[in-house]
Design brief:
Elements lengths: L10 H22 L1 H9 L21 H6 L14 E4 L9 E4 L1 H17 L7 E4 L8 H13 L2 E4 L5 H11 L3 E4 L1 H13 L11 E4 L13 H9 L3 E8 L4 E4 L7 E2 L5 E6 L12 E7 L10 E7 L1 E2 L11 E2 L4 E2 L4 E3 L2 E3 L1 H9 L7 E7 L5 E8 L5 H15 L4 E5 L5 H4 L10 E3 L2
Parallel strand pairs: 3-4, 3-5, 5-6, 6-7, 18-21, 19-20
Antiparallel strand pairs: 1-2, 7-8, 9-14, 10-11, 11-12, 12-15, 13-14, 16-17, 18-19
Helix pairs in contact: 1-2, 4-5, 6-7, 7-8, 9-10
Length: 429
Protein backbone atom coordinates (compact mmCIF):
# COMPACT_ATOMS: atom_id res chain seq x y z
CA UNK A 1 0.00 0.00 0.00
CA UNK A 2 1.38 3.40 -1.02
CA UNK A 3 1.70 5.95 1.79
CA UNK A 4 3.49 9.26 1.09
CA UNK A 5 6.74 9.37 3.08
CA UNK A 6 5.81 12.59 4.85
CA UNK A 7 2.70 10.89 6.27
CA UNK A 8 4.87 8.22 7.90
CA UNK A 9 7.31 10.77 9.35
CA UNK A 10 7.55 11.97 12.95
CA UNK A 11 5.34 14.82 14.17
CA UNK A 12 8.44 17.03 14.37
CA UNK A 13 9.42 16.33 10.77
CA UNK A 14 5.84 16.86 9.56
CA UNK A 15 5.74 20.22 11.37
CA UNK A 16 9.06 21.33 9.83
CA UNK A 17 7.85 20.24 6.39
CA UNK A 18 4.60 22.20 6.77
CA UNK A 19 6.38 25.32 7.96
CA UNK A 20 8.45 25.35 4.78
CA UNK A 21 5.28 24.91 2.70
CA UNK A 22 3.59 27.68 4.71
CA UNK A 23 6.32 30.20 3.89
CA UNK A 24 5.99 29.32 0.19
CA UNK A 25 2.20 29.76 0.38
CA UNK A 26 2.48 33.16 2.10
CA UNK A 27 4.92 34.42 -0.52
CA UNK A 28 2.57 33.28 -3.29
CA UNK A 29 -0.43 34.98 -1.68
CA UNK A 30 1.42 38.25 -1.20
CA UNK A 31 2.43 38.29 -4.88
CA UNK A 32 -0.76 37.00 -6.50
CA UNK A 33 -3.82 37.37 -4.24
CA UNK A 34 -5.60 40.77 -4.33
CA UNK A 35 -7.43 39.90 -1.10
CA UNK A 36 -4.47 38.67 0.95
CA UNK A 37 -1.93 41.22 -0.30
CA UNK A 38 -4.39 43.91 0.78
CA UNK A 39 -4.92 42.14 4.13
CA UNK A 40 -1.18 41.93 4.80
CA UNK A 41 -0.80 45.67 4.15
CA UNK A 42 -3.85 46.60 6.22
CA UNK A 43 -2.75 44.48 9.20
CA UNK A 44 0.92 45.44 8.74
CA UNK A 45 1.77 41.75 8.50
CA UNK A 46 5.38 41.06 7.63
CA UNK A 47 5.17 37.55 6.19
CA UNK A 48 8.91 37.03 6.71
CA UNK A 49 8.12 36.93 10.44
CA UNK A 50 5.67 34.05 9.98
CA UNK A 51 8.08 31.13 10.31
CA UNK A 52 6.26 28.52 12.40
CA UNK A 53 2.76 27.10 12.54
CA UNK A 54 2.34 28.85 15.88
CA UNK A 55 2.95 32.17 14.13
CA UNK A 56 -0.25 31.75 12.12
CA UNK A 57 -2.20 33.36 14.97
CA UNK A 58 -0.63 36.68 13.92
CA UNK A 59 -2.78 36.58 10.77
CA UNK A 60 -6.56 37.22 10.91
CA UNK A 61 -8.88 34.36 9.93
CA UNK A 62 -10.80 34.22 6.64
CA UNK A 63 -14.56 33.64 6.82
CA UNK A 64 -17.23 32.38 4.43
CA UNK A 65 -18.74 35.87 4.40
CA UNK A 66 -15.45 37.29 3.07
CA UNK A 67 -15.42 34.67 0.32
CA UNK A 68 -19.00 35.49 -0.61
CA UNK A 69 -18.54 39.27 -0.64
CA UNK A 70 -15.14 39.36 -2.38
CA UNK A 71 -15.10 36.16 -4.37
CA UNK A 72 -13.13 37.56 -7.33
CA UNK A 73 -10.42 39.06 -5.11
CA UNK A 74 -9.38 35.59 -3.92
CA UNK A 75 -8.49 34.42 -7.44
CA UNK A 76 -4.73 34.46 -8.01
CA UNK A 77 -4.42 33.69 -11.73
CA UNK A 78 -5.53 35.32 -14.99
CA UNK A 79 -8.64 33.85 -16.58
CA UNK A 80 -6.69 32.22 -19.39
CA UNK A 81 -5.01 29.98 -16.77
CA UNK A 82 -8.33 28.74 -15.37
CA UNK A 83 -9.40 25.38 -16.81
CA UNK A 84 -12.35 24.58 -14.54
CA UNK A 85 -14.87 26.54 -12.50
CA UNK A 86 -16.66 24.95 -9.55
CA UNK A 87 -19.06 26.34 -6.98
CA UNK A 88 -19.87 25.53 -3.38
CA UNK A 89 -23.30 24.10 -2.67
CA UNK A 90 -24.45 27.29 -0.92
CA UNK A 91 -25.83 25.29 2.02
CA UNK A 92 -25.18 28.14 4.48
CA UNK A 93 -25.32 31.17 2.20
CA UNK A 94 -24.50 32.35 -1.30
CA UNK A 95 -22.49 29.89 -3.43
CA UNK A 96 -18.83 30.74 -4.01
CA UNK A 97 -17.04 30.15 -7.32
CA UNK A 98 -13.62 28.49 -7.24
CA UNK A 99 -11.19 28.71 -10.15
CA UNK A 100 -8.89 25.74 -10.81
CA UNK A 101 -5.78 25.67 -12.98
CA UNK A 102 -4.36 22.60 -14.71
CA UNK A 103 -2.02 22.07 -11.75
CA UNK A 104 -4.96 22.41 -9.33
CA UNK A 105 -6.75 19.58 -11.14
CA UNK A 106 -3.61 17.45 -10.87
CA UNK A 107 -3.46 18.24 -7.15
CA UNK A 108 -7.16 17.33 -6.81
CA UNK A 109 -6.51 14.00 -8.55
CA UNK A 110 -3.55 13.30 -6.23
CA UNK A 111 -5.67 14.11 -3.18
CA UNK A 112 -8.38 11.64 -4.13
CA UNK A 113 -5.82 9.07 -5.28
CA UNK A 114 -4.18 8.91 -1.84
CA UNK A 115 -7.63 9.09 -0.22
CA UNK A 116 -8.86 6.04 -2.16
CA UNK A 117 -5.65 4.21 -1.26
CA UNK A 118 -6.30 5.12 2.38
CA UNK A 119 -9.68 3.39 2.02
CA UNK A 120 -8.09 0.17 0.73
CA UNK A 121 -8.34 1.20 -2.91
CA UNK A 122 -6.41 -0.44 -5.74
CA UNK A 123 -6.30 -0.60 -9.53
CA UNK A 124 -8.43 -3.75 -9.32
CA UNK A 125 -11.44 -1.82 -8.00
CA UNK A 126 -14.46 -0.61 -9.94
CA UNK A 127 -16.22 2.31 -8.25
CA UNK A 128 -19.85 3.20 -8.87
CA UNK A 129 -20.29 6.96 -8.48
CA UNK A 130 -23.75 7.69 -7.07
CA UNK A 131 -23.25 11.46 -6.87
CA UNK A 132 -23.39 14.02 -9.63
CA UNK A 133 -20.33 15.03 -11.63
CA UNK A 134 -22.07 17.95 -13.33
CA UNK A 135 -23.55 21.26 -12.07
CA UNK A 136 -20.10 22.63 -11.20
CA UNK A 137 -19.74 20.05 -8.39
CA UNK A 138 -16.12 19.62 -7.31
CA UNK A 139 -16.55 16.35 -5.40
CA UNK A 140 -17.88 14.34 -8.35
CA UNK A 141 -15.03 15.59 -10.54
CA UNK A 142 -12.48 14.87 -7.79
CA UNK A 143 -13.68 11.28 -7.39
CA UNK A 144 -13.46 10.71 -11.14
CA UNK A 145 -9.94 12.15 -11.37
CA UNK A 146 -8.77 10.22 -8.30
CA UNK A 147 -10.07 6.89 -9.56
CA UNK A 148 -8.38 7.50 -12.91
CA UNK A 149 -5.06 8.21 -11.19
CA UNK A 150 -5.54 5.06 -9.11
CA UNK A 151 -5.90 3.12 -12.35
CA UNK A 152 -9.25 1.68 -11.26
CA UNK A 153 -12.57 1.68 -13.12
CA UNK A 154 -15.47 4.06 -12.51
CA UNK A 155 -19.14 3.95 -13.46
CA UNK A 156 -20.78 7.39 -13.44
CA UNK A 157 -24.41 6.60 -12.61
CA UNK A 158 -25.20 9.83 -10.76
CA UNK A 159 -27.55 10.51 -7.86
CA UNK A 160 -30.81 8.78 -6.98
CA UNK A 161 -32.53 6.14 -9.16
CA UNK A 162 -32.16 2.95 -7.07
CA UNK A 163 -33.40 0.84 -9.99
CA UNK A 164 -30.65 2.12 -12.28
CA UNK A 165 -28.07 1.71 -9.52
CA UNK A 166 -28.95 -1.98 -9.10
CA UNK A 167 -29.17 -2.58 -12.85
CA UNK A 168 -25.67 -1.13 -13.18
CA UNK A 169 -24.33 -3.23 -10.31
CA UNK A 170 -25.70 -6.37 -11.96
CA UNK A 171 -24.42 -5.43 -15.42
CA UNK A 172 -20.92 -4.05 -14.64
CA UNK A 173 -20.16 -5.73 -11.30
CA UNK A 174 -18.47 -2.85 -9.43
CA UNK A 175 -17.09 -3.74 -6.00
CA UNK A 176 -17.32 -0.27 -4.42
CA UNK A 177 -19.80 2.58 -4.10
CA UNK A 178 -19.10 6.28 -3.66
CA UNK A 179 -22.26 7.24 -1.85
CA UNK A 180 -24.12 9.32 0.74
CA UNK A 181 -24.68 6.85 3.63
CA UNK A 182 -28.44 7.36 3.94
CA UNK A 183 -28.78 6.46 0.25
CA UNK A 184 -27.37 3.03 1.10
CA UNK A 185 -30.53 2.47 3.15
CA UNK A 186 -32.60 3.43 0.08
CA UNK A 187 -30.68 0.89 -2.01
CA UNK A 188 -31.25 -1.78 0.63
CA UNK A 189 -34.95 -0.95 0.88
CA UNK A 190 -35.36 -1.12 -2.92
CA UNK A 191 -33.46 -4.42 -3.06
CA UNK A 192 -35.63 -5.98 -0.36
CA UNK A 193 -38.85 -4.86 -2.03
CA UNK A 194 -37.69 -6.17 -5.42
CA UNK A 195 -36.15 -9.47 -4.32
CA UNK A 196 -32.58 -8.41 -5.14
CA UNK A 197 -30.02 -10.54 -3.30
CA UNK A 198 -27.95 -7.51 -2.28
CA UNK A 199 -26.01 -9.39 0.42
CA UNK A 200 -24.40 -11.51 -2.29
CA UNK A 201 -23.83 -8.63 -4.70
CA UNK A 202 -20.29 -7.72 -5.87
CA UNK A 203 -20.32 -4.60 -3.63
CA UNK A 204 -17.78 -5.04 -0.83
CA UNK A 205 -17.18 -1.47 0.36
CA UNK A 206 -18.57 2.07 0.31
CA UNK A 207 -16.74 5.39 0.34
CA UNK A 208 -19.24 7.42 2.36
CA UNK A 209 -19.60 11.16 1.87
CA UNK A 210 -21.70 14.01 3.21
CA UNK A 211 -23.00 12.39 6.41
CA UNK A 212 -21.21 11.12 9.55
CA UNK A 213 -21.12 7.38 10.22
CA UNK A 214 -19.39 7.47 13.60
CA UNK A 215 -19.70 8.92 17.06
CA UNK A 216 -16.89 10.93 18.64
CA UNK A 217 -15.40 7.72 20.10
CA UNK A 218 -15.30 6.23 16.55
CA UNK A 219 -18.03 3.71 17.26
CA UNK A 220 -20.66 3.51 14.53
CA UNK A 221 -23.54 5.92 15.04
CA UNK A 222 -27.12 4.80 14.51
CA UNK A 223 -26.99 5.33 10.74
CA UNK A 224 -23.77 3.32 10.49
CA UNK A 225 -25.22 0.52 12.64
CA UNK A 226 -28.41 0.34 10.57
CA UNK A 227 -26.39 -0.04 7.39
CA UNK A 228 -24.02 -2.66 8.83
CA UNK A 229 -26.87 -4.68 10.38
CA UNK A 230 -28.47 -4.96 6.96
CA UNK A 231 -25.44 -5.08 4.67
CA UNK A 232 -22.06 -6.15 6.02
CA UNK A 233 -19.82 -4.17 3.69
CA UNK A 234 -16.78 -2.05 4.65
CA UNK A 235 -17.71 1.58 5.32
CA UNK A 236 -15.12 4.36 4.96
CA UNK A 237 -16.05 7.86 6.13
CA UNK A 238 -14.66 10.93 4.40
CA UNK A 239 -14.73 14.63 5.23
CA UNK A 240 -14.04 17.32 2.64
CA UNK A 241 -15.26 20.63 1.26
CA UNK A 242 -14.86 22.63 -1.93
CA UNK A 243 -12.89 25.30 -0.06
CA UNK A 244 -10.29 22.77 1.13
CA UNK A 245 -9.80 21.03 -2.22
CA UNK A 246 -8.61 18.23 0.08
CA UNK A 247 -10.22 15.21 1.76
CA UNK A 248 -9.79 13.51 5.14
CA UNK A 249 -10.50 9.80 4.64
CA UNK A 250 -10.60 6.90 7.05
CA UNK A 251 -8.33 3.90 6.71
CA UNK A 252 -9.37 0.37 7.68
CA UNK A 253 -8.78 1.20 11.37
CA UNK A 254 -11.77 3.56 11.30
CA UNK A 255 -10.14 6.01 13.70
CA UNK A 256 -10.80 9.30 11.90
CA UNK A 257 -10.00 10.96 8.60
CA UNK A 258 -6.27 11.15 7.81
CA UNK A 259 -4.60 14.51 7.26
CA UNK A 260 -2.39 14.95 4.19
CA UNK A 261 0.26 17.47 5.34
CA UNK A 262 1.55 18.03 1.82
CA UNK A 263 -1.86 19.50 0.89
CA UNK A 264 -3.25 21.41 3.85
CA UNK A 265 -2.49 22.93 7.26
CA UNK A 266 -5.13 22.35 9.94
CA UNK A 267 -5.89 24.38 13.05
CA UNK A 268 -8.75 23.85 15.51
CA UNK A 269 -9.93 27.19 16.89
CA UNK A 270 -12.31 28.27 19.62
CA UNK A 271 -14.94 30.99 19.21
CA UNK A 272 -12.29 33.65 19.91
CA UNK A 273 -9.98 32.25 17.18
CA UNK A 274 -7.53 30.82 19.69
CA UNK A 275 -6.03 27.39 19.05
CA UNK A 276 -7.68 24.85 21.34
CA UNK A 277 -5.70 22.47 23.53
CA UNK A 278 -5.09 18.93 22.30
CA UNK A 279 -8.17 16.83 22.92
CA UNK A 280 -10.58 19.78 22.90
CA UNK A 281 -13.12 20.31 20.14
CA UNK A 282 -12.71 23.30 17.84
CA UNK A 283 -13.63 24.76 14.49
CA UNK A 284 -11.68 23.28 11.59
CA UNK A 285 -9.60 26.11 10.12
CA UNK A 286 -7.46 25.40 7.07
CA UNK A 287 -4.61 26.83 5.03
CA UNK A 288 -4.33 25.22 1.62
CA UNK A 289 -0.94 24.27 0.17
CA UNK A 290 0.06 23.96 -3.47
CA UNK A 291 -3.07 25.60 -4.92
CA UNK A 292 -2.63 28.15 -7.72
CA UNK A 293 -6.15 29.32 -8.58
CA UNK A 294 -7.73 30.20 -5.27
CA UNK A 295 -5.64 29.31 -2.20
CA UNK A 296 -7.01 30.11 1.24
CA UNK A 297 -5.25 31.20 4.43
CA UNK A 298 -6.69 30.40 7.86
CA UNK A 299 -10.15 29.76 6.42
CA UNK A 300 -12.78 28.90 9.04
CA UNK A 301 -14.89 26.05 7.67
CA UNK A 302 -17.64 26.27 10.27
CA UNK A 303 -17.21 22.55 11.11
CA UNK A 304 -16.66 21.50 14.73
CA UNK A 305 -14.69 18.35 15.60
CA UNK A 306 -11.80 16.82 17.58
CA UNK A 307 -8.28 16.14 16.30
CA UNK A 308 -6.35 12.98 17.22
CA UNK A 309 -2.56 12.88 17.16
CA UNK A 310 -1.50 9.38 18.20
CA UNK A 311 -0.02 7.13 15.51
CA UNK A 312 -2.49 5.02 13.52
CA UNK A 313 -2.11 1.23 13.09
CA UNK A 314 -2.03 1.80 9.32
CA UNK A 315 1.44 3.37 9.57
CA UNK A 316 0.47 7.03 9.16
CA UNK A 317 1.58 9.52 11.82
CA UNK A 318 -0.50 12.45 10.63
CA UNK A 319 -3.31 13.91 12.72
CA UNK A 320 -6.79 12.52 12.20
CA UNK A 321 -10.03 14.46 12.31
CA UNK A 322 -12.88 12.88 14.21
CA UNK A 323 -16.50 12.94 13.03
CA UNK A 324 -17.97 16.40 12.51
CA UNK A 325 -20.00 17.24 15.61
CA UNK A 326 -21.85 20.07 13.87
CA UNK A 327 -21.51 23.40 12.12
CA UNK A 328 -21.18 26.67 13.98
CA UNK A 329 -23.98 28.31 11.96
CA UNK A 330 -26.32 25.38 12.58
CA UNK A 331 -26.04 25.34 16.37
CA UNK A 332 -29.48 25.18 17.99
CA UNK A 333 -30.27 26.50 21.48
CA UNK A 334 -33.46 24.63 22.35
CA UNK A 335 -34.99 24.78 25.83
CA UNK A 336 -31.61 25.33 27.47
CA UNK A 337 -29.88 22.57 25.48
CA UNK A 338 -27.30 23.06 22.75
CA UNK A 339 -27.87 20.76 19.78
CA UNK A 340 -26.39 20.23 16.34
CA UNK A 341 -28.29 18.57 13.45
CA UNK A 342 -26.13 15.37 13.41
CA UNK A 343 -27.24 14.55 16.98
CA UNK A 344 -30.89 14.94 15.97
CA UNK A 345 -30.37 12.82 12.84
CA UNK A 346 -28.75 10.08 14.91
CA UNK A 347 -31.66 10.04 17.35
CA UNK A 348 -34.16 9.80 14.49
CA UNK A 349 -32.25 6.93 12.86
CA UNK A 350 -32.46 4.99 16.11
CA UNK A 351 -36.28 4.95 16.02
CA UNK A 352 -37.84 1.99 14.12
CA UNK A 353 -40.53 2.68 11.54
CA UNK A 354 -39.30 6.06 10.32
CA UNK A 355 -39.11 6.68 6.59
CA UNK A 356 -37.82 9.96 5.23
CA UNK A 357 -37.51 12.98 7.49
CA UNK A 358 -36.62 16.68 7.52
CA UNK A 359 -35.54 18.69 10.56
CA UNK A 360 -36.78 22.29 10.47
CA UNK A 361 -35.57 25.03 12.85
CA UNK A 362 -37.25 28.42 13.22
CA UNK A 363 -37.70 31.27 15.70
CA UNK A 364 -40.94 31.33 17.73
CA UNK A 365 -42.90 34.40 18.81
CA UNK A 366 -40.47 35.11 21.67
CA UNK A 367 -37.44 34.73 19.33
CA UNK A 368 -36.12 31.46 20.74
CA UNK A 369 -35.29 28.38 18.65
CA UNK A 370 -37.99 25.82 17.88
CA UNK A 371 -37.48 22.41 16.27
CA UNK A 372 -40.10 20.79 14.02
CA UNK A 373 -39.38 17.33 12.67
CA UNK A 374 -41.28 16.24 9.56
CA UNK A 375 -41.44 12.44 9.44
CA UNK A 376 -42.90 9.95 6.99
CA UNK A 377 -44.74 7.07 8.58
CA UNK A 378 -47.02 4.49 6.98
CA UNK A 379 -49.33 4.22 9.98
CA UNK A 380 -49.62 8.00 10.42
CA UNK A 381 -51.14 7.60 13.89
CA UNK A 382 -50.96 9.41 17.22
CA UNK A 383 -49.33 6.47 19.03
CA UNK A 384 -46.34 6.56 16.70
CA UNK A 385 -46.03 10.32 17.16
CA UNK A 386 -46.17 9.99 20.96
CA UNK A 387 -43.59 7.18 20.96
CA UNK A 388 -41.28 9.21 18.71
CA UNK A 389 -41.51 12.21 21.05
CA UNK A 390 -40.66 10.00 24.06
CA UNK A 391 -37.78 8.43 22.12
CA UNK A 392 -36.33 11.83 21.14
CA UNK A 393 -36.66 13.12 24.69
CA UNK A 394 -34.68 10.13 25.98
CA UNK A 395 -31.95 10.69 23.38
CA UNK A 396 -31.81 14.51 23.29
CA UNK A 397 -33.24 15.45 26.74
CA UNK A 398 -35.73 17.76 24.99
CA UNK A 399 -38.92 17.15 22.98
CA UNK A 400 -39.16 18.68 19.48
CA UNK A 401 -42.47 19.11 17.69
CA UNK A 402 -43.42 16.28 15.31
CA UNK A 403 -45.44 16.45 12.10
CA UNK A 404 -46.32 13.18 10.35
CA UNK A 405 -46.48 12.83 6.56
CA UNK A 406 -47.56 10.07 4.13
CA UNK A 407 -44.95 7.68 2.75
CA UNK A 408 -42.65 9.21 0.07
CA UNK A 409 -44.27 12.66 0.36
CA UNK A 410 -41.04 14.28 1.60
CA UNK A 411 -38.85 12.91 -1.19
CA UNK A 412 -39.23 15.97 -3.52
CA UNK A 413 -38.08 18.26 -0.70
CA UNK A 414 -35.14 16.06 0.31
CA UNK A 415 -33.82 15.23 -3.17
CA UNK A 416 -34.42 18.55 -4.91
CA UNK A 417 -33.38 18.90 -8.53
CA UNK A 418 -31.62 22.19 -7.78
CA UNK A 419 -29.52 20.66 -4.96
CA UNK A 420 -26.50 18.38 -5.21
CA UNK A 421 -27.00 16.99 -1.71
CA UNK A 422 -29.97 15.50 0.18
CA UNK A 423 -31.65 18.24 2.22
CA UNK A 424 -32.55 17.02 5.70
CA UNK A 425 -32.04 20.26 7.63
CA UNK A 426 -33.92 23.50 6.92
CA UNK A 427 -32.93 26.56 8.95
CA UNK A 428 -35.54 29.32 8.84
CA UNK A 429 -34.03 31.47 11.57
Amino acid sequence: MFIPEIEKSSRKKIKTFQEKKLREALSYLERHSPFYSELFKKEKTNISEIKTLEDLVKIPVTTKEMLQKRNEDFICVPKNKIVDFVTTSGTLGLPVTFALTENDLKRLAYNEYISFICADGSEDDIYQLTTTIDRRFMAGLAYFLGVRKLGAGIVRVGSGLPQLQWETIERIQPNALIVVPSFLLKLIDYAEKNNINYKNSPIKKAICIGEPLRNSDFSLNTLGKRIKEKWDIDLFSTYASTEMETAFTECKAGQGGHHHPELIIVELLDENNNVVKEGEQGEVTITTLGIEGMPLLRFKTGDICHAHHEACPCGRNTLRLGPIIGRTQQMIKFKGTTLYPPAIFDAIHAMPGIGNYIVEVYKNEIETDEILIHVENQKNNSDFKKNLQLHLKSKLRVTPKIELHPENSLLPKIFRKDSRKPIRFIDKR
